[in-house]
């Protein structure tokens, strides 16, 4: 059974940093892309960042580019999201999702339950 | 960045009726790399459709997807009580993926 368990969320002041982790199990981790998706309270889904199984060439939404960094450790079956220079608008539930390859792209076939990040003074 | 616009914002229907949800892209979605997700309150999203028209594992055949290029549709042939939720389309044909703003399907 695929399991994705996010951790690392919490309350942080504007301008601060936080590192999210997602521990994966139940599948061959290095064979899948991984993605972070967030959802602000009462709002829709926003794709944040994705990284392929090899870990090369991550991509970011314009709203987080230059502030967030995605990485993965295939030896630990984990993906991370380092978030710097946090803003109030980064407040959201952050989901980790598995990317299933389909041609040259990948869709999100399994999701964690999310970790809440609150940016406030 | 490809912008996805979903319509309507809210759809009010009754169980047994047919639902048609639209997703329009600001530019052509490569190779129909378009997915649909369902989200219920307090739950993570669930994959319904990928590749514009392929149902994910375990998804009932009352759910169907269609479309190509810039216009895509999710259809639910006969609504069940458990189908009332929010639905999102997502394109994954470009390096930066994007979601639509969602359609709320309410009773």
Secondary-structure blueprint:
The complex is a heterodimer of chains A (121) and B (107).
Chain A: E1 3-7, E2 10-12, E3 18-25, E4 33-39, E5 45-51, E6 59-60, E7 68-73, E8 78-83, E9 92-102, E10 105-111, E11 115-119
Parallel strand pairs in A: 2-11
Antiparallel strand pairs in A: 1-3, 3-8, 4-5, 4-9, 5-6, 7-8, 9-10, 9-11
Chain B: E1 4-7, E2 10-12, E3 19-25, E4 34-39, E5 46-50, E6 54-55, E7 63-68, E8 71-76, E9 86-91, E10 98-99, E11 103-106
Parallel strand pairs in B: 2-11
Antiparallel strand pairs in B: 1-3, 3-8, 4-5, 4-9, 5-6, 7-8, 9-10, 9-11
Describe the structure.
- Chain A has 121 residues and is mainly beta.
- Chain A has strands at residues 3-7, 10-12, 18-25, 33-39, 45-51, 59-60, 68-73, 78-83, 92-102, 105-111, 115-119.
- Chain A has no helices and eleven strands.
- In chain B, the strands form two sheets. In chain B, strands 2, 4, 5, 6, 9, 10 and 11 form a seven-stranded mixed sheet that branches. Chain B has a four-stranded antiparallel sheet with strand order 1-3-8-7, with no helix packed on it.
- The mean pLDDT of chain B is 96.
- In chain B, a hairpin with a 3-residue loop joins strand 5 and strand 6 (54-55).
- Chain B contains no helices and eleven strands.
- The radius of gyration of chain B is 13 Å and the shape is globular.
- Chains A and B meet through strand 5, strand 6, strand 9 and strand 10 of A and strand 4, strand 5, strand 9 and strand 10 of B.
